[in-house]
Write a structure and sequence with these properties.
Helix 2 packs antiparallel against helix 3, helix 4 packs across helix 6 and helix 8 packs across helix 9. This protein has 2 domains: 170 residues, no CATH class; 104 residues, Arc Repressor Mutant, subunit A (Orthogonal Bundle), CATH 1.10.10. It is an alpha+beta fold. The chain is built from 10 helices and 12 strands. One of its GO terms (molecular function) is sequence-specific DNA binding.
């Protein structure tokens, strides 16, 4: 099933073509959704994509290979030129240990500013980093699907998703009790009603200390940072889709104490103020 929610995509109108595909039954413990951008731009034309990513790991297949993208802590940007595609899986936390165990070269994961130290990787050590995955058969199958001129677009994308699903089913075990709690935590963190860490424990019948340990092992980002990210994603979406709302109103809806706190938080992660973001939201 193809869905068109674009939460986290800061400027949807700049996307050449973008799809989100729901995971099939039986894999919904491992993947929140699949995301597939495709582009074919004229010579000399570029498209700058800016994303405020979900605080999670992604498995990504591109023409250049297969990688695991670690949990991001900041806005990401990529300039598209020429033609290309990617097939990504936004992983649920229960899938993270199994996928990271398949990394081709843990020491090769490199942040834009340097290298991840040698050791078995974990989500925290892959923050803002990309690591190669030894999955040549997966790459070949997905590449063949995405470049099959005999299939319509939905057919190509569906075949590519099936290939990624097959690899994940072979690589990721069924969740145990701890992994299931990690997935439940991921759901709770997306609830707009959650604005503080101490609100999570009662919802999940667990202690804050246990949930902090789960966050470290399965997410690689603190609970506070994940709540903050969701609120900023929601804030960007509200600013973009509801120009009638004042910035103070948006801040209040998100649970911020005042306009200034929201503006400071927003600018520290996105690099622009809410007013600047809103002004550029519908510019191509």
């Amino acid at each position: 099933m193809i869905t068109e929610s674009r939460r986290g995509v800061l400027y949807p109108e700049r996307l050449p073509e973008f799809h989100r595909v729901a995971p099939p039954r039986g894999l919904d413990f491992a993947v929140r959704w699949f995301w597939i951008p495709e582009w074919n731009l004229p010579a000399g034309v570029s498209s700058r994509q800016e994303i405020l990513p979900f605080p999670a790991c992604n498995l990504v297949v591109e023409p250049s290979g297969v990688t695991v993208v670690g949990p991001p802590t900041r806005r990401s940007e990529r300039v598209l030129t020429g033609s290309g595609w990617a097939v990504g899986a936004l992983l649920l936390p229960a899938a993270v240990p199994g996928v990271l165990a398949s990394l081709a070269d843990p020491a090769g994961a490199a942040d834009r500013a340097g290298s991840v130290p040698e050791a078995a990787p974990d989500p925290a050590r892959l923050r803002d980093a990309v690591a190669p995955l030894a999955a040549s058969e997966l790459w070949e199958t997905v590449s063949a699907a995405m470049t099959d001129s005999g299939r319509a677009g939905d057919g190509r994308r569906a075949a590519a998703v099936v290939a990624v699903c097959d690899w994940l089913l072979a690589s990721v075990p069924e969740p145990d009790a701890e992994a299931a709690l990690a997935n439940a935590l991921a759901v709770a963190l997306q609830d707009p009603g959650v604005t503080r860490v101490d609100e999570l424990g009662p919802r999940l019948h667990s202690s804050t200390r246990t949930l902090q340990r789960i966050a470290a092992r399965y997410f690689g980002i603190s609970l506070h940072a994940m709540i903050r990210r969701r609120r900023l994603q929601e804030g960007a979406e509200r600013l973009r889709e509801h120009p009638e709302l004042g910035i103070g109103e948006v801040a209040a809806e998100l649970g911020y104490s005042d306009h200034a706190h929201f503006t400071t938080d927003f600018a520290s992660v996105l690099g622009v103020t809410p007013s600047q973001f809103r002004a550029g939201a519908h510019l191509n």
